[in-house]
Design a protein that fits this description.
The chain is built from five helices and six strands; from the N terminus they run αββαββααββα. By secondary structure, the protein is of the alpha+beta class. The protein has two domains: 1-69, no CATH class; 77-137, no CATH class. The chain has a two-stranded antiparallel ribbon with strand order 1-2. Helix 1 (4-18) packs across helix 3 (63-76).
Length: 137
């Protein structure tokens, strides 16, 4: 689970990187951060006629949460993206699945992936290395 404060910090850095005069569109970065925090802090749900407030993570499947997770993951995957670009290899991620090609030895790719994974204890991955692609239709 991605920590809220880590996600908000990643969102702030993302906004600062892509802002023009401290704004994204017509919104100040601080306004975006306040709105994002409000969404996370006020997420409620009902279960067996009782209301609960979610105190960790964000609402599963929410477009906002998905966008926030993508911003968080973009920072995490930078080392992999740079490696893949440098070696003219393919890298793609859809939600929580990653596909990448490599000409590295299995030992070297495992080392690279291990170095990437250990940068954030909140991200857990299962590594599967194959020489063929499974096609699900």
């Amino acid at each position: 689970m991605i920590p809220r404060d880590g996600a908000i910090a990643a969102l702030r850095r993302f906004c600062q990187k892509y802002s023009v005069n401290g704004k994204i569109g017509n919104l100040k970065i601080d306004t975006i951060i306040k709105l994002a925090s409000a969404v996370l802090d006020t997420n409620t749900f009902a279960y067996k006629n009782k209301y609960y407030r979610q105190i960790q993570g964000g609402a599963m499947g929410s477009p906002f949460t998905m966008g926030l997770v993508n911003v968080y993951m973009l920072e995490w995957e930078q080392k992999l993206l740079q490696h893949q670009n440098r070696h003219h290899e393919i890298y793609g991620r859809y939600i929580d699945d990653v596909f990448m090609t490599t000409n590295l030895s299995q030992e070297d790719i495992l080392k690279l992936l291990d170095e990437t994974v250990t940068t954030d204890p909140n991200i857990k991955i299962i590594i599967t290395i194959k020489q063929a692609l499974e096609y699900l239709d």
